[in-house]
Amino acid sequence: MSSHSSFHLGLGARSVRRSWKSLLWRVMHFVVWPWDAKVCPLMHFIRILLVLRQTVLALPFIALLLGCEAQSGSLPSSKSLSAEKVASIAATIKAKYPDLSNEMRDKVLNTVVTSIDNMVFVEGGQFDMGDFGWICEYDEKDVCTWPCGQEPEQLCNISRNSDDDFVHTVTLASYYLSKFQVALGEFDLFFSVKGIPPFDAEKRKREDLKFRYQPDLPAPTQSWQQAKDYCDWLADLSGYPVELPSEAQWEYAARNRGQHILFPTDSGSLNYGKNFPLDDEGNNFPMNRFAPNPLGIYGLAGNSTDWVNDWYSEHYYENSPSENPKGPTTGIKKIRRGSTVLDAPLSSAPLVRRWAVEPSSDRFSGGTSFRCSIQSDRKL
């Protein structure tokens, strides 16, 4: 229901409460203080019946209004979703998880609504995907504007790998990408709802390791499938087409809609300690520590990498479709993009680099996280 209707509903409920108190007062007046009972006992009895009849008839209406008021009061507010949509998500959660406590259902609802609110609309367009080159010597603290006074053919490779050398034109439809990676606290909630014990349960009890398991850190993953399952879970509960982003979508957003930039920071340069971690840092940090890139997206380098949806193929760029590429249909390895807090920034932070890795490992890694997207070109 709209905020306007909720406002009037609140007034109606308060009015009914006043009427309810008035009715109770009248009952008390005739039952507790029967000052005229001695005068006319029969009339006194009839008046009691009439008051009780009014009270009983009002009860369903009172329950309806107070119930609606309680329900609307418990729903979280949203920057992008209507009150009706939030109520619909709440109903879906209740239907899918009838055995969850109200407190847990509220946490799930807040997580879903916040996740949708955190989506950044990325307007589609055309860009040259791949290693577009940079001048061979540069100051990472004050990066020049591409092509830095050089002819493109005179530029050096940005990445040391060859799988991103083939620069190819890609056209993308508009989509949404989360401004934040999924938080560890949100990932823990997902596991709890699914009946899965928290990972590293014993290590979390150690005082000297609690810094690794703070709820506002990027969610560590053990496998690509876990990341996919989480985004699918959001899709199932929200009704939106939530998925992991494609590799092309990740790079396009990290490059401020495909611009020729080197580092995915607020300025395109590295200001250590201000928009990028210091050289001697080795632990994950809260996702909003540094300013976002110009599109409003946080943590695209220097904290934890992102799984993307694509399978990996070394020569995929040479055969990639020009419109909305989704990667090979099959493969052995998956792709991560971005860089971790442990990676050397000059070789790893540049945003054209691709990380081809096995889709699962034997442990949860703080260097491997993810963010979800909404695969829709329509604004919410």
CATH topology of the largest domain: paralog of FGE (formylglycine-generating enzyme)
Please report the number of helical segments: 9
Mean pLDDT: 86
Approximately what portion of the residues adopt beta-strand conformation?
5-15%
CATH superfamily of the largest domain: paralog of FGE (formylglycine-generating enzyme)
* Shape label: globular
Spatial sequence of strands, sheet with the most strands: 1-4-12-6
Q: Distance between termini? A: 17 Å
Task: Profile the largest sheet.
Answer: 4 strands, antiparallel
User: For the CA atoms, what is the radius of gyration?
Assistant: 29 Å
Share in helix? 25-40%
Named CATH architecture of the largest domain: Alpha-Beta Complex
Q: Number of DSSP strands?
A: 12
- Low-pLDDT runs of 5+ residues are 1-40, 55-73
What order do the helices and strands follow?
HHHHEEEEHEHEHEHEHEEEE
Write the layout of secondary structure elements.
Layout: H1 3-31, H2 41-74, H3 83-96, H4 102-117, E1 119-122, E2 125-129, E3 168-172, E4 175-178, H5 184-193, E5 221-223, H6 224-238, E6 242-243, H7 247-254, E7 305-311, H8 316-319, E8 334-337, H9 345-348, E9 354-357, E10 360-365, E11 368-370, E12 373-374
Parallel strand pairs: 7-11
Antiparallel strand pairs: 1-4, 2-3, 4-12, 5-10, 6-12, 7-8, 8-9
Helix pairs in contact: 1-2, 3-4, 4-5
